């Protein structure tokens, strides 16, 4: 049995699980960098029976799955992975298993980005190293309005932290009710009102057919010129061109972005030249604790599958 671990950017996969438990004769290969285009991925992975992939780094569409004749088990970190064609896997008889996640690290990163923007932490740190002292004013959060697009587990955690800072918190999503909002101590408002009145806006929706492009030019155009925009969910929720235009022309106060349409971010990306942004390389789930669960569960998935009793199965809807 040949097993490959993909996209181990931090080179930690071998240390975070006891791979010596693999069956005798199993070979383990670790790829620590993106493999390239679909042709390169297919060529590199063609020999492998089992693949362990990091959620939504290397995509597995039907065309690629069809070019991997030896693949029998695909393990993805996390309980869902929108970049896998599960129907194509099912048609080929390929088992797909997921893993657990722990905590709400994305909520913590969300607040890291909000604070970095409001308190000008990256800009002032760079200025200080360049010999300049106090180059701009920072903003208070107390008494300001935090607008959450989505109020699930992550959105609720972000809301509670905002309330601890003394912020007024409002929320909107397609299915949000007054009762659910009240449970979180949040006011439900209309989508237009949220974007027009919030001082900080943060996205916490799952990307799907109903939510793709949910933040478009109209919503961005309604924002205050001082408002901060944070996206730690998915790039596809937002009209990227409209957001870049607003930032480039100073129509909004700034943005903290952790997710991008192309990842890793290309060296010529427009994002890298934008003013008043704090950018992070999709760090929302990249914690020591999560990775330990990811790889230990992945090993458990492989052992369960080899024993004929696969666990944490992912199937097409």
UniProtKB/TrEMBL annotation:
Keyword Methyltransferase in record: no
Every copy of the D-isomer specific 2-hydroxyacid dehydrogenase NAD-binding domain together lies at: 112-284
Asked if NAD is a keyword of the record, the answer is: yes
Regions crossing the membrane = none
- In this chain the D-isomer specific 2-hydroxyacid dehydrogenase catalytic domain maps to 29-311
Q: Which UniProt keywords apply?
A: NAD, Oxidoreductase
* Family annotation (CDD domains): PGDH_like_1
| Any Pfam family matching the protein | 2-Hacid_dh_C
| Cited SUPFAM superfamilies | Formate/glycerate dehydrogenase catalytic domain-like, NAD(P)-binding Rossmann-fold domains
Q: Name one GO molecular function term.
A: NAD binding
Q: Which Gene3D superfamilies match?
A: NAD(P)-binding Rossmann-like Domain
The family this protein is said to belong to: Belongs to the D-isomer specific 2-hydroxyacid dehydrogenase family.
Protein name per UniProt: 2-hydroxyacid dehydrogenase
Protein species of origin: Azospirillum thiophilum
